[in-house]
Phosphoribosylglycinamide formyltransferase (Halomonas daqiaonensis), 203 residues
Amino acid sequence: RRVVVLISGSGSNLQALIDAQEHDALGGEIVAVISNQPNAYGLKRARDAGIDAVALPHREYDSRDAFDGALIKVIERHEPDLIVLAGFMRILTPRFVNRFLGRMLNIHPSLLPDYTGLRTHARALSDGVAVHGCSVHSVTEKLDGGPVALQAEVAVTEDDTEDSLQAKVQAREHLIYPIAVRWFLEGRLQLKGDTATIDGVAL
Ligand code: GRF
């Protein structure tokens, strides 16, 4: 089973997926990593692991649609069974989302449906929530709104800052993302438009 990972930055989630793959725990192979930011550290992580690393700078395209068209071409060249968004900081066009509907996952740093969008940790802190976390979800046209496959919680403590909370949540991201990818590649997690099942149980 073939996986393409899209990133924009550090790629710590990508690293967790690479580590899982190296322990035969991913259920498939990462065949390419694509970044819209040519300097993303994650591209180096990919190269170090011997994975095809592709920079596709969105700035070189006139429109979101032109960029997404180029991205579709690069992705399809690698014939993936699954596309994994791992800190990919571009909003994708409906054309793109629908092309890969049912085989694209994202990880979001909140307990969805709470705190879609950006600065999730700062907003959770200022609301004084006791519990925060992260979610792996299917990507649909609704931003951060596709069915949630897997979540992990962290307790928010009084001394937490945006940075400390982010670090705690990211440690959980690195645990749950490889599990969700594996479940998908094994056919246990199935994504169908606006619904998802694990072992036949609707989520
Ligand atoms: C993660 O916190 C993820 O939840 C969000 O973007 C961040 C990416 O971090 N979507 P990294 O590039 O995987 O280190």
About this structure: DSSP finds six helices and ten strands in the chain.
